[in-house]
Design brief:
Elements (H helix, E strand, L loop, with lengths): L1 E7 L8 E7 L6 E10 L2 H7 L16 E8 L11 E4 L2 E3 L5 H4 L11 E2 L20 E5 L4 E2 L6 H4 L5 H11 L7 E5 L3 H12 L3 E6 L5 H7 L3 E4 L3 H5 L5 E6 L8 H5 L1 E9 L12 H7 L2 E4 L5 H14 L5 E4 L4 H10 L5 E5 L22
Helix pairs in contact: 4-5, 4-10
Length: 367
């Protein structure tokens, strides 16, 4: 075991504070990574504050990890010391079920191993600890190559928000000339706009706030529709091939479904805590529409997404925070006061005294 410096919570009300966590020594198939940056996801807030239940404390969250390889096991191929790499929302899966065999590890029939907050199925069931830490050890099959031409800090949110929006757009075959709607313009929504535009689609943002119109256009949106304007919504009927719904609050889907063309689809990415109004099946039946959900992406698809973003120059819009600003950042996330994703500068973590060296920073790392 080695010790990593971290910021962790000890209870639902403790907030995040300086701590140390244990990391295993790299095994033959493992990659050790000194973490440069870790994105802040709203799911981190839910987990740390015990809002989903079942949190095993102490907990160091973070599943949008970018850093440099510091050590590889003897059986590792494809990675070497100094490589810029990433780790997303999972660090293992059963590897044998149909979903894993199909490269869809996020739908593992035995349950994926989350990057933090879950039992490590191959290491005595200890609780996994995430990227608000100085380093991490991950099996090579769940490590991603980060293109060097992208800003590594702005890449971090791609490992969750990026692939979560890329996956359904790719699954539905969005292509040049298609018309795509994006409901909501937060961390997920702004990535959906960027990626759909890079795929060649005409993009319309649906928002309840007219003040977001300029921001939507700056991100590349072609049109903005105020979804509370019934007349404007009626004008959108039969307009879209595909809609990405990123809103995590209760809202009526039927006006958005009505705006789809025949054979169109709406994917639900936002997960409201309150029960949603019922979907009118007549809208689905009359146009052969699809209403579907989607969950992050598999490892191969996440790598595909990173390579796509490198080709098209797509990264997340971020605000950097230091470790002692994490609690404030969480409060701002809950209040919706972020454009569009926070990213932790891991060089602001205190020294642990052990673990991956932070004195001689790998290339690209802020010392």
């Amino acid at each position: 075991m080695t010790t990593a410096s971290a910021y962790a919570a000890t209870s639902p009300t403790s907030g995040l504070s300086a701590s140390t966590i244990d990391r295993r020594e790299p095994e033959a198939d493992d990659v050790e990574i000194a973490i440069d940056y870790c994105g802040l996801c709203h799911s981190d807030v839910h987990a740390v504050r015990g809002e989903w239940g079942g949190t095993d404390y102490p907990l160091a969250p973070g599943h949008e990890i970018v850093g440099r390889v510091t050590q590889v096991g003897e059986h590792v191929s494809g990675f070497q010391e100094g490589d810029l790499v990433g780790v997303g929302c999972m660090v293992d899966s059963c590897r044998v079920c149909a979903s894993c065999q199909d490269g869809q590890e996020q739908y593992c029939e035995q349950g994926l191993t989350p990057t933090y907050g879950g039992p490590d199925r191959r290491h005595d069931g200890v609780t996994t600890q995430g990227g608000y830490s100085s380093h991490i050890v991950v099996n090579q099959g769940y490590v991603l190559r980060v293109p060097e031409n992208l800003d590594p800090a702005a890449v971090a949110p791609l490992l969750c928000a990026g692939v979560t929006t890329y996956s359904p757009l790719r699954y539905f075959g969005v292509k040049e000339g298609d018309s795509v709607g994006v409901v909501g313009l937060g961390g997920l929504g702004h990535m959906a706009v960027k990626i759909a535009k890079a795929m060649g689609a005409t993009v319309t943002v649906f928002t309840t706030s007219s003040s977001k119109s300029q921001a939507a256009h700056e991100l590349g949106a072609d049109n903005v529709v105020l979804s509370t304007d019934e007349e404007a919504m009626e004008e959108m009927v039969y307009s879209f091939n595909f809609i990405v719904d990123t809103v995590a609050a209760r809202h009526d889907l039927n006006p958005f479904l009505a705006s789809l063309k025949r054979d169109g689809g709406l994917v639900q990415l936002g997960l409201p805590s309150d029960e949603m109004p019922p979907v009118d099946p007549r809208i689905l039946i009359r146009r052969r529409l699809s209403y579907l959900g989607s969950n992050i992406g598999g490892i191969a698809e996440t790598q595909e997404m990173l390579d796509f973003c490198a080709e098209h120059g797509v990264v997340s819009e971020i605000e950097m925070v230091k470790a002692d600003e994490l609690d404030e950042a969480y409060d701002r996330m809950v209040a919706g006061d972020v454009r569009y994703r926070f990213v932790l500068d891991n060089s602001s973590l205190p020294e642990a005294g052990q673990g991956a060296s932070r004195g001689d920073a790998p290339a690209g790392r802020k010392a």
